[in-house]
Amino acid sequence: MAIRVVVVGAGIIGGSIAWRLAQRGAEVTLVDAGAMGGEASSAGAGMLATGGEIVSPHGWRQMALESRDLYPAFVQELAGESGCGIDFRANGAVELAASEQEWAHLEERAAAQGGIGIHSHALTIQEALDLIPGLEAGSMFGARFFPGDAIVDPRDIMGALRSVCRARRVRLVEHCAVRKLRAANGTVQVYTPMGLLKADAAVLSSGAWSGAVEVSGAQGAIPTPVSFPVRGHLIAYLSTPGRLNPILRHQNTYLLQRTSGRLIAGTSEERVGFDRSLDPDIVADIHSRASRLLPELAGIAAEQSWTGFRPAVEDLEPRIGRLESTRIWLAYGHYRNGILLAPATAERISGQILSS
Ligand SMILES: Cc1cc2nc3c(=O)[nH]c(=O)nc-3n(C[C@H](O)[C@H](O)[C@H](O)COP(=O)(O)OP(=O)(O)OC[C@H]3O[C@@H](n4cnc5c(N)ncnc54)[C@H](O)[C@@H]3O)c2cc1C
Description:
The chain is α/β, with parallel strands linked by helices. It has 2 domains: 4-85 and 154-226 and 314-354, FAD/NAD(P)-binding domain (3-Layer(bba) Sandwich), CATH 3.50.50.60; 91-149 and 228-312, D-Amino Acid Oxidase, Chain A, domain 2. Helices cover 31% and strands 29% of the residues. It has 9 helices and 22 strands. It has helices at 12-23, 40-43, 50-53, 60-82, 100-114, 125-131, 154-167, 280-293, 338-354, and strands at 4-8, 27-31, 47-48, 88-89, 93-97, 121-123, 142-146, 150-152, 171-173, 180-184, 187-192, 195-199, 201-204, 214-217, 220-221, 227-238, 247-250, 253-257, 262-266, 304-313, 319-322, 328-332. Helix 4 (60-82) packs across helix 7. It is elongated. It starts with a strand and ends with a helix. The structure holds flavin-adenine dinucleotide. Flavin-adenine dinucleotide is lined by residues 8-14, 31-34, 38-41, 43-47, 177-178, 205-209, 213, 232, 234, 266-267, 308, 310-311, 332, 334-340.
């Protein structure tokens, strides 16, 4: 008989895990409090930017390096199986330094990254301008190119995951918030407003909300890591397709372009709980920072602005593995890199469940 797994939370993490489990013969129920992909996984920019995010190979960072390598095949398989187009481009990233001090930091980081397989090379100002015409060169002290960085549209991934989950007979239950998981006698009971679900294993992948799902066993409550949201803002401009090929970044500002022409600028980080509202000052600040990198944006109004909740845990180390002495797996806390980490997380969690 097929193993029955309930996956709690249908963002990119839960959706990818459900797909991998169903491909390998599990009977999967995927439950979401809202709509599949309706939270961080549709809000994210979709940079697969090991060059901008990782300096050492410890903890989740090693997994991120593996996940970056898995991405082209993951996208190809998902697009092929779903028949959905997925906007994925491995066009690299140009990172700028505006001062001698910033340049020294960037060089130091690049030297450390070279040792873990993240390669980059220095660009002359002319080379940077050749890659990104119209770039504000006046305030540029130096630039490096990270050829391994890539971009994916997470909304395309979520659309494709919905389609493959449906085709693989994953039972998708939306608008149903799981309240509690109870592990007992080698099984898991999942408490929902629509009744009790019984499973051989469960995955808690509810993003920033994961810590709010109660977990218990035969001996009573089982503590799980607290999760919390870190809100981020993004803004989008309508631009000519092909205007910006690589990611462009400087400190906490970045610009990237979808194949459709949609140009996205970010970002911000606020610890304000689950407050979804847009802060007009933050939107204006992102617009102003983006315009300093690409001056033509100064005269364009953003077409859209939005916020999303990055799922964080206290030490910012995602929890990806089995909850001791239960048949519950945790897969949350992916913070700024959940889009990047999805393929490797799905491989690890589905592999562990099916071999347990
Ligand atoms: C502005 C911004 C920019 C970002 N940029 C990038 C980027 O460039 N690259 C990158 O790799 N990452 C990026 N991220 C991070 C990335 O989006 C997240 O790490 C990732 O989407 C987390 O996926 P998830 O599936 O864990 O969470 P979510 O997508 O939030 O999914 C969790 C799901 O669980 C559901 N849920 C909640 N409670 C319950 C419950 N009780 N029962 C059932 N379901 C429940 C929710 O409705 C939700 O659908 C960005 C995030 C933001 C906000």
